[in-house]
Design goal:
Layout lengths: L2 H7 L9 H20 L8 H12 L3 H29 L1 H19 L5 H15 L3 H11 L5 H29 L12 H14 L15 H14 L4 H9 L2 H29 L1 H7 L5 H5 L1 H19 L6 H20 L4 H16 L2 H12 L4 H30 L5 H16 L5
Helix pairs in contact: 2-7, 2-8, 2-9, 3-12, 4-5, 4-6, 4-7, 4-19, 5-6, 5-7, 5-9, 7-19, 8-15, 8-18, 12-18, 12-19, 12-20, 15-17, 15-18, 16-17, 16-20, 18-19
Length: 435
């Protein structure tokens, strides 16, 4: 039986595999995780495009809608704390696929909401379903990719997440601008892609080389980590994993730093579409190009930034993740201030918006590579879930505050000042990670 056949059949009897064959398999697992997560944001980053329609149809304020957006983020944060650990216990393959299916169903449910209560409950439940995805995929990648390649592998994984934002923006723009459909269809059409991604991941991926029935060729430098993983996993409880992760002070520093970074990221993702739908940009742009299509420059920049940051953390900084985080956060603050203060036309606005996304989102590659770096491969899912819990607690706390500020001032461009402040705080905290 060939190695590919062993993989497909789920043969669990470990068998040594040569470097080229193993390299193909680990790339297959990474690409499967990327393919699935490429569609995940169609299930949660479309909300900003629905805000104008929901306001008009249901009569809700921006503050209320910001709070509902925050509910999803808080639910997602709670789910990360739970589901990252479960990915270590049960494996990431089933959990990531289940998240895609559940989120698709809950998005369709959200499209039938008739008021703030039903909208908040369904969108909040969707946040928990969405939380099954990221740590589960990260767990699979950590099992297949060695420590010295984590910057690269998580860079590609985070690149897929960035491209997922592009897909969410493009599909939402097609629904509301090109097809001129009601806001409900934002929650019905794009998520069908996520359903396909989840099913495909379940069929293609395997949680680990052992589950695939092969033994990876291990360089001597990784033998100690693999031996420690094998010894520690036997009889280890969920409580022991949580305690080990939460007793690491650098996990806390990482969590707080990514919390500020994610507040900046979601400030951009939720409120930039609202900003570009406002009269201020349309009057100042005068380009004849739909402002929603201009906003797509943001997630494109995010995707490219994630890919670049992961590569330079390995190649230029020798797996020191804190340095590219600080560098990108400082530059992200500068780009956000440029968006706020500089008189930008069409071309310059697209360029600066691209760079804002590039620098604000790029450090996520280094943050996620830090999780297995700091906690070890056997607790990669738990560490990823804990850190992502911080990320979404901060983002969820910021959303209703931003919505209230938009209502009270009527100035949507203030989002760029908020983003600049959050990036600066993230850079300061990241200086304490020292990894």
């Amino acid at each position: 039986m060939s190695n590919t056949e062993k993989l497909a059949s789920g043969n669990r009897s470990p068998e040594p595999l040569e470097d080229p064959a193993y390299r193909r398999l680990k790339w297959r697992m990474l690409l499967a995780a990327m393919f699935c997560y490429f569609f995940f944001y169609t299930g949660r980053q479309t909300f900003g495009f629905a805000i104008p329609g929901i306001q008009e149809d249901l009569g809700l304020s921006k503050a209320t809608l910001g709070a509902i957006s925050g509910i999803l983020l808080w639910s997602y944060a709670a789910g990360q704390m739970i589901n990252g650990n479960l990915a270590d216990k049960w494996g990431g393959r089933r959990m990531m696929a289940a998240g895609a299916v559940l989120s698709t169903l809950l998005n369709w449910g959200t499209s039938f909401a008739t008021g703030p209560k039903s909208l908040g409950v369904l969108w909040g439940a969707n946040g928990f379903a969405q939380s099954l995805g990221w740590p589960s995929g990260g767990r699979v990648i950590s099992n297949w990719w060695a420590p010295h390649e984590r910057g690269k592998s998580f860079g590609f994984y985070t690149f897929a997440a960035g491209m997922a934002s592009v897909l969410a923006f493009v599909t939402s723009t097609v629904v509301v601008d090109t097809l001129d459909l009601d806001w409900q269809w934002i929650f019905r059409v794009p998520v069908l892609l996520m359903l396909v991604g989840g099913i495909t991941f379940y069929l293609v991926a395997r949680d680990s080389p052992r589950q695939a029935g092969i033994t990876p060729p291990a360089p001597a430098t990784e033998a100690d980590e693999q031996a420690a993983d094998a010894d520690a996993v036997a009889g280890e409880t969920s409580f022991q994993r949580y305690r080990a992760v939460l007793r690491n002070p650098r996990i806390w520093s990482t969590g707080i730093a990514i919390g500020f970074q994610n507040a900046a990221r979601y400030g951009l993702l939720i409120w930039v579409p609202v900003y570009f739908l406002g009269d201020g940009w349309e009057d100042g742009g005068g380009s004849g190009v739909s402002p929603l299509w201009i906003s797509v420059a943001l997630p494109v920049g995010m995707a490219v930034g994630a890919l670049v940051n992961g590569q330079i953390s390995d190649r230029l900084f020798g797996a020191r993740r804190d340095r590219p985080i600080v560098l990108f956060m400082v530059l992200g603050a500068a780009m956000a201030l440029t968006m706020y203060w500089a008189p930008l036309g069409l071309a310059s606005g697209i360029a600066v918006l691209f760079l804002t996304g590039f620098f604000v989102y790029g450090p996520q590659s280094s943050f996620w590579a830090l999780c297995p770096d700091l906690a070890g491969r056997r607790m990669a899912g738990t560490a990823t879930g804990v850190v992502n819990c911080f990320a979404y607690l901060f983002a969820g706390a910021a959303e209703p505050l931003v919505g209230h500020l938009m209502d009270s001032t009527g100035n949507t461009s203030l989002i760029f000042l908020i983003v600049a402040a959050a990036c600066s705080c993230s850079a300061l905290v990241a200086l304490t990670i020292r990894r």
